[in-house]
Design a protein that fits this description.
alpha/beta, Rossmann fold, 8-stranded mixed beta sheet, about 45% helix, globular, HAD_sf
Length: about 325
């Protein structure tokens, strides 16, 4: 006879089986989704459709692996750039650390403003003042010494709003995108207005992008024998500015292939997206990250000193670039 105990046991086993099946299906779906931090909106669909199109052999838009080059801006595209660029925060901390060796900075602008935290005066110094700060804090040492200074600073510095290391403020959806592209035969490059040697010590750990695939601004260096050891010494002179019209030049000089995909977030990336997408066949993808989430990150575009998105936003509609709405298109911003 089928007892009540048997009936409850059967029901319990059935429930456990249903739960197991649900967990299995959920896990399988998670594994099959290459971009789990993206909402199922148009940008995610555009990325996946593009990748499938250029990687499918026999497709009229198939692209061989050597030609699968994707370029990414860094500040505001891969990690935070507000309330100021991370490299600027580094430079300001360097001014304060070096100030005891330079008593003249107490009365000389823009160093006085940097020491006192007077951001209004610092901003009024313009590009000339910021360049002066960078030359004073980034030069006068070997490449190896500078790499150690950057690494040590990043290990202790904290973002003022999120109270986390800057290297933990990479955008998780973009980290997933980098990995997804590489899994499909793409070579991913960072092409940034930031200093190339500021980025190289940490990009591989944070993004999976090795130092030889980083294109950025640079200062001049020269070979020196120092204590009978060969070194490269950093000089207080600009070598190359990898921003705006400089980005296509940097891509051509250091990569040597025209990308088929480009990702940016500001007017500084306009020429890079034009260079990438306005070249005809094969298929091309251009995307802009639009900062629209004041609650989880920041909301800004046309009226900001850092990461202004104005001309490029207007150009996106004409050129057919996809605009990523951070608030609507990303499930999460940072990795938990």
């Amino acid at each position: 006879m089928f007892s009540m105990r048997d009936m409850f046991r059967s029901a319990r086993e059935g429930t456990l089986a249903a739960v197991a099946i649900l967990l299995f299906v959920t896990a399988a779906q998670a594994q099959s989704d290459p971009l789990p931090s993206w909402n199922d909106t148009a940008p995610k669909a555009s990325i996946i459709a593009f990748v499938e199109k250029v990687t499918k052999e026999g497709s009229p838009e198939f692209v061989s692996e050597p030609q699968r080059i994707a370029v990414f801006d860094n500040d505001g595209t891969l990690w935070v750039e507000h309330p100021m660029y991370t490299q600027l925060a580094f430079a300001l901390d360097r001014v304060k650390a070096l100030a005891p060796q330079h008593p003249e900075w107490r009365t000389k602008q823009p160093f006085k403003a940097a020491i006192e935290g007077d951001m209004e005066t610092l901003a009024s110094s313009g590009d000339k003042g910021l360049l002066e700060l960078l030359m004073a804090t980034h030069a006068g040492m070997t490449v190896d010494d500078f790499q150690k200074v950057v690494t040590d600073w990043l290990s202790t510095a904290r973002d003022p709003r999120f109270n986390r290391p800057y290297t933990e403020l990479a955008y998780q959806p973009m980290v997933e995108l980098l990995a997804y592209l590489r899994a499909n035969g793409f070579k991913t490059f960072i092409v940034s207005g930031g200093g190339i040697e500021f980025m190289r010590p940490w990009t591989e750990k944070v993004y999976g992008v090795p130092p030889e695939q980083v294109v950025g601004s640079s200062i001049k260096t020269e070979f020196r024998m120092q204590d009978d050891m060969p070194t490269l010494f950093r000089l207080p002179d600009v070598n190359f500015i990898d921003d705006k019209a400089g980005k296509p030049v940097g891509i051509n000089q250091q990569i040597g292939r025209r990308p088929i995909a480009a990702f940016g977030n500001s007017d500084g990336d306009l020429e890079m997206l034009q260079w990438t997408t306005m070249a005809g066949a094969p298929a091309r993808l251009g995307m802009l990250v639009h900062h629209t989430d004041a609650e989880r990150e920041y909301a800004y575009d046309r009226n900001t000193e850092f990461g202004r998105l104005d001309k490029a936003l207007d150009a996106a509609a004409i050129a057919g670039w996809t605009v990523i709405d951070m608030k609507a298109d990303w499930k999460t911003i940072f990795k938990d």
